[in-house]
Amino acid sequence: MNDSIYKRIEQNPQFQELVAKRERFAWILSAIMLGLYVAFILLIAFEPQLLGTRISADSPITWGIPMGVGLIISAFVLTGIYVQRANGEFDTLNQSILDEVQK
After folding, report:
1. Nearest one of 100, 103, 86 to 18, comparing CA atoms
2. How many whole angstroms separate alpha carbon 94 and alpha carbon 103?
3. How far apart are CA 29 and CA 41, in angstroms?
4. What residue spans define the domains of the chain?
5. How far is CA 46 from CA 37, 42, 50, 69, 70, in A?
6. Residue 87: its pLDDT value, please?
7. Tens digit of each residue's pLDDT (9 = 90 or more) over 16-54
8. 3-state SS of the chain: helix, strand, coil percent to 5?
9. Is 62 helix (H, G, I), strand (E, B) or coil?
């Protein structure tokens, strides 16, 4: 692509919409993940006995294990949500922009 195509892409309102949507969505997902991590760290710092409590009296598993695994799984889920939207809505917008500027 030459410079004039790049300039047309940058000036395209759909491109600006795509960039704004993608950036806002990424920040929201990042804030959710950061909130979960901070909550987990604060829980470790201020309520460590809760994480060390057994799930049931005869179980060797403490509450810290499912909470930690849940934190890891939440990262995968948020990544999957981003990928699904990126491969759907964002790719459709991207293709629309490319079709429009190549006319």
Report:
1. 86
2. 15
3. 18
4. 2-102
5. 14, 6, 9, 20, 19
6. 96
7. 999 999 999 999 999 999 999 999 999 999 999 999 999
8. 85, 0, 15
9. strand
